[in-house]
Structure formats: structure tokens, C-alpha cells
Amino acid sequence: DFKFPRFLAMVGRKIGPNWNPPPGAKGAKAKVKFTVLRSGLVAGVDLVEPSGNFYFDQAALRAIRASSPFPPLPEEFFQESIVLFVDLVPKE
Predict the structure, then answer these.
(1) Cβ partners under 8 Å of residue 33, min gap 6
(2) Rounded to the nearest 5°, which phi and psi values hold at 3?
(3) How far is CA 49 from CA 1, 41, 78, in A?
(4) In the chain, what is the straight-line distance between the N-terminal and C-terminal CA atoms, in Å?
(5) Which residues, other chains included, contact 52 with Cβ-Cβ below 8 Å and sequence gap of 6+?
(6) CA angle 67, 62, 54 (to 5 degrees)
(7) What is the pLDDT along the chain (92 residues), one digit of tens a residue?
(8) Of 7, 65, 68, 75, which is the most exposed, with the fewest CB atoms less than 10 Å away?
(9) Contact 63/20 with Cβ under 8 angstroms?
(10) What is the DSSP letter of 39?
């Protein structure tokens, strides 16, 4: 429904350097939900599908928080915020 793939790509590039999962978490995956305000600031971060590994999950939440602010929402997007979901898995 969100028709701004360039914005989503920028979000992914911003998260990448901040994603530092703990060693030994092979096969883990955490789904994180977060709200990006029009300004690009993150308003909320929640773990919606935990991995089962406390340290991995905390690293996932930290990656999103450390990435704020994101770029501002596109001017053509008329809502004041967007809720995004991201699956974080161990780096290869």
C-alpha cells in the first residue's frame, strides 16, 4: 500500500549499520514494529515476534532506536506517520 520504495530502501540502509546481533544467534529472527513520524523521528518501537533469545531481541530493538531519525516521510505521503515492520536476522 505504501508506494514509496525509495523511502523504504533508505530506511533499510539506515538500519543496516546499527544492526549488531550477538554472536551465536544462527537461525534467530525478530520482527520489530516501529512508527516513523513525518519528521523521520521514531515514535515507538515494539517487538512483535521475539526470537526467543533475549540478547538478540534487545539488539533488534536497539538497531531501530539507534537509526532514528530516519529521512522525513515523502511530501506526497499525506499521513502524519507510518507504521513499519522489519524482520531482523543474523548477518551472513
Answers:
(1) 44, 45, 46, 47, 48, 83, 84, 85
(2) -100, 40
(3) 22, 23, 29
(4) 30
(5) 28
(6) 155
(7) 678 999 999 999 999 999 999 998 889 999 999 999 999 999 999 999 999 999 999 999 999 999 999 999 999 988 999 999 999 999 87
(8) 75
(9) yes
(10) T
Record the pTM: 0.91
Q: Kindly report the number of other CB atoms within 10 A of residue 81's CB atom.
A: 16
DSSP structure class, residue 48: E
Predicted pLDDT of residue 1 = 64
Which cell numbers hold the place of 11? 530506511
Environment class of 67 (CB within 10 Å of its CB; exposed 0-12, middle 13-18, buried 19+): buried
Residues for the chain: how many in total? 92
